[in-house]
Design goal:
The protein is an alpha/beta fold. The protein has 13 helices and 17 strands. The protein has a domain at about 60-370: TIM Barrel (Alpha-Beta Barrel), CATH 3.20.20.140. The strands form two sheets. Strands 1, 2, 3, 4, 5, 14, 15, 16 and 17 form a nine-stranded mixed beta sheet that branches. It has an eight-stranded parallel beta sheet with strand order 6-7-8-9-10-11-12-13.
């Protein structure tokens, strides 16, 4: 058998297990063989990894494609993802009625994306909850999101009228009926925030730390408790998305000890890397806020002990002009899909000695398991040949102009990071080599991932 691709002399990273020298053979878009050191196989193209890491392609389970240029984001942002070693994304999608708009959104994404993709559905109304089983089976979606920061007046400002604890509870009851489904929740107590924010503004505060002080860790932890408590009462698997603080993580641990449905935890690269004193200022404004060094250290402990399941970027590709304002007026969120891997290699492997297999667990394997992304997140023969070759010693300075995003800035711009992907492979196609997209990275080669077993094929 002649392979299409053979990666030799690699340092293979088996997520959550171990690392070992060896090679990987690819044929017809799938992993065909995993070989011992020195074993060569015939292939149309052989890539010498020269001892660099080879791990499953990253799965970013938290991106917001469409928040920059709604009609073009899947083109620009999937390319930015490929530069960062990301081979699959799950993007958040909201609509008044998914049944009337999903096909249009899917067709647009399919025509543009250079990597595989799926969607989470944002649940913001009674209609969404009532039609949840129907849209799940029709569109192959098995994950959803509740935005608890859009309750009350905060929700009305965004046009949401139904978001409250009742909608959360109703959604949990419906999600619990769907095998393998999971409800993600944004946890912040938005009702208390104005009481803390208004005095800060009155005092003339306009710094990144003030954004943390108007929505402190205990408001996140309080909401985490409520979500976990309701999850237990409804037997609903939940995912605490973009968790940012030690106090919130400890609340999850407390609920896990008493049993009940799965409680998953996702954090983000920025919560593992920068704190509220960071010089990026409004460029690093995000919800929940970046916190303290003590929170960063606690979240890394969560990565190491398995309390944190996944890392996602919360990638939002807006323009710099929306951020260069006061901390109170700048938009929330920032791009990150291209820099997730080097941040975790720098802050995890180099700065803290976190093993590559631990990074691969939270960057790839766990997301595939939690979100039913079949055939990904593993180096097992038969799996999709989604791969990334990483040079852990390659140092580059973050330059937004090189990251191909619709966004023209990064909160990490100007920082040297050590450890970058040098090759990205999507289902057997090399789409990035040495920091540049290849001719194989064509519009529409990405595949939509259906994740609910009863969905139409």
């Amino acid at each position: 058998m002649t392979l299409d691709l053979f990666f030799k002399n690699a340092h293979l990273v088996f997520p959550g297990e171990a690392t070992a020298p060896g090679g990987v053979g690819v044929r017809d878009g799938r992993i065909a063989a995993v070989t011992a050191p020195g074993e060569d196989l015939a292939a149309d193209r052989t890539v010498d990894c020269e001892g660099r890491w080879l791990m499953p392609g990253l799965i970013d389970p938290h991106v917001h494609f469409g928040f920059g240029d709604p009609e073009k984001d899947f083109r620009t942002e999937s390319r930015s993802a490929a530069l960062g070693g990301v081979t699959s994304v799950i993007s958040f999608y909201r609509a008044k009625d998914f049944r009337e708009d999903f096909d249009r959104q899917l067709a647009m994404a399919q025509s543009q994306s250079v990597i595989d993709f799926s969607f989470h559905l944002g649940l913001t109304s009674d209609l969404h909850v009532k039609t949840l089983a129907e849209i799940t089976r029709t569109y192959g979606v098995s994950s959803y999101k509740m935005y608890m920061m859009y309750k009350g007046q905060a929700g009305l400002a965004k046009g949401f009228t139904d978001i409250d604890d009742g909608l959360l509870f109703a959604a949990m009851r419906e999600v619990a009926k769907l095998p393998g489904a999971v409800l993600g929740v944004h946890c912040e107590n938005v009702e208390v925030i104005p009481y803390l924010r208004d005095p800060l503004r009155a005092d003339g505060r306009d710094d990144l730390a003030a954004w943390d002080e108007q929505s402190p860790d205990f408001l996140e932890a309080e909401n985490v408790h409520r979500v976990c408590y309701f999850a237990k009462k409804t037997a609903c698997p939940v995912n605490i998305v973009h968790l940012s603080s030690k106090e919130a993580l400890d609340e999850v641990r407390r609920h896990r000890r008493s049993g009940g449905p799965p409680i998953y935890v996702e954090t983000c690269p920025h919560y593992l890397f920068i704190d509220k004193q960071d010089a990026a200022g409004p460029l690093a404004k995000v919800n929940p806020p970046v916190r303290t060094q003590a929170d960063i250290d606690a979240l890394w402990e969560g990565v190491l002990d398995g309390s944190i399941d996944t890392v996602g970027t919360d990638h939002v590709p807006r323009k710099r002009e929306t951020k260069e304002k006061s901390i109170w007026q700048a938009t929330n969120g920032f791009p990150g899909v291209a820099t997730m891997l080097p941040i975790l290699v720098q802050a995890g492997y180099h700065d803290r000695g976190v093993a590559p297999e631990v990074l691969a667990r939270v960057l790839s394997r766990n997301a595939a398991r939690i979100y039913q992304v079949a055939g990904k997140g593993t180096l097992t023969p038969g799996a999709d040949a989604d791969l990334v070759v990483i040079d852990p010693d390659l140092t580059r300075t973050v330059d937004p102009a090189e990251l191909l995003s619709h966004s023209d800035y990064s909160p990490f711009e100007g920082r040297p990071l050590r450890g970058w992907p040098v090759t990205t492979v999507s289902r057997g196609r090399i789409v990035m080599q040495d920091g540049r997209l290849t001719d194989a990275a064509k519009d529409g080669i990405g595949r939509y991932i259906r994740r609910f077993p009863e969905s139409e094929q």
